[in-house]
UniProtKB/TrEMBL annotation:
Residues 332-399 form the U-box domain. It comes from the Eukaryota. This is U-box domain-containing protein. One of its GO terms (biological process) is protein ubiquitination. GO terms for molecular function: ubiquitin-protein transferase activity.
Length: 399
């Protein structure tokens, strides 16, 4: 039996993550099975997430976290030996200092957001006093920035107190493209709206931005809007597809001619996407050239493939894990194929330094204007990597 014929199991994916040089395969699996990021197989102590942190692959961790939303992930999930991702990062901080720095900051961001979700405003103040830069940041999976939670869970007094003591950007966007003012309107919090609107206008005036706004970020629907809604970090209009509707915004089927319900995207034991449509099967392989480090580890990879073949001979054992058979939901797949900035299916997807995939033109113009991640608020430069695989998947689905 060849490795191509071996049923894919969580055990295999853990082996990929443990090897430290199968990042593409690990990402593809989580892309389709996000619920298994913190699954612990019977004979293992650590999850996929713990193994990724152990091997110091910061870029892979960022890309994985970008796939999640609040209700899907708890970064404090414990391994079988009672370790969090931060515990693992601390143990390896001398070997992978960048991973430790990233995970430590991620946990601080999460502390702040969790405190706001629980309306623990004293803790929010304490965290911001120690780490003021967190005021305009959030974890990539968080639906809202801090001030969104203030509007949602707080009152006028809390908002005024925070604005007086800390520095905030007033136009940050939620994962639903909702500004602070949008949220205040939706929740009927007129007292907060009366604070946010003048504050926003003062901020925009103080920036005195003289350049014209790039219209290429917006779809034809957005371009027709004469008074586009406010946006993250200053004047750039955010491309909400349904600006007059209540949240959640209506979902448009991105593939009306080929509904995802008639499409199956899965992963083979070789780590390649398999795409099935109308009884036709297509294998989507990674076409990105390997890095020097990946090239140096080619022999180890071959050994790993051999070990999977050996595993197949033992598959009849009743104790061996059952194969993974259920891919991600249509809603999750649609989210992963949609650009946050344009709210449209990708045409030319690229991966930014925050691990998120964006439409190339949209994120280039965004970063050139604001030098930050629209998803997390962290600093960002305009260096991107092509997401070739995602582009291939979308092209295949549209055919």
């Amino acid at each position: 039996m060849s490795s191509r014929d071996i049923p894919l199991t969580i055990e295999m994916v853990i082996s990929w993550a443990k090897s430290g040089h199968e990042s593409d395969k690990v990402y593809r699996f989580i892309f389709l099975h996000p619920e298994d990021l913190f699954t612990i197989p019977q004979r293992r102590s650590w999850t996929i997430g713990h193994q990724v942190v152990y091997n110091g692959d910061v870029n892979l961790l960022k890309r994985i976290l970008a796939l999640f939303s609040d209700e899907q992930i708890n970064i404090r999930t414990l391994s079988r030996d009672q370790k969090t991702l931060l515990d693992v990062a601390k143990e390896r901080h001398k070997i992978y200092p960048s991973m430790y720095t990233y995970v430590e900051h991620l946990f601080l961001q999460d502390d702040l957001i969790q405190a706001a979700k629980q309306s623990n405003w004293d803790l929010v103040h304490n965290i911001l006093n120690k780490h003021p830069k967190l005021s305009n940041e959030k974890p990539p999976y968080s639906t809202y920035f801090l001030l969104h939670y203030v509007v949602q869970n707080g009152d006028r007094r809390i908002l005024e107190n925070l604005l007086r003591r800390h520095e905030f950007q007033m136009n940050v966007l939620s994962a639903h493209n909702e500004t602070l003012i949008d949220m205040a309107k939706r929740l009927g919090k007129i007292d907060m709206y009366s604070i946010l609107e003048p504050t926003k206008q003062e901020e925009l005036h103080s920036k005195s931005i003289k350049h014209s706004l790039p219209l290429s970020l917006f779809s034809s629907k957005s371009k027709s809007n004469k008074n586009p809604p406010s946006s993250t970090f200053s004047l750039l209009p955010h491309p909400v597809l349904h600006p007059t509707s209540d949240l959640p915004y209506p979902t448009i089927d991105p593939f009306p001619s080929a509904p995802l319900s008639n499409v199956t995207l899965n992963l083979s034991s070789t780590g390649n996407f398999t795409f099935t449509k109308d009884n036709k099967s297509i294998t989507i392989q990674n076409e990105v050239s390997p890095s020097k480090e990946q090239q140096q580890l080619i022999n180890t990879k071959n050994e790993h493939i051999h070990s999977m073949e050996t595993m197949s001979s033992q598959y009849s054992d009743a104790n061996i894990e059952q194969p993974v058979i259920s891919p991600t939901s249509k809603e999750q797949l649609t989210k992963n194929l949609t650009c946050f900035l344009t709210q449209e299916i990708f045409i030319d997807p690229v991966i930014a330094s925050d691990g998120q995939t964006y439409e190339r033109e949209a994120i280039t113009e965004w970063v050139n204007l604001y030098h930050c991640s629209p998803m997390t608020g962290a600093s960002m430069d305009a260096e991107f990597n092509d997401n070739t695989e995602l582009k291939q998947i979308i092209q295949s689905m549209k055919k």
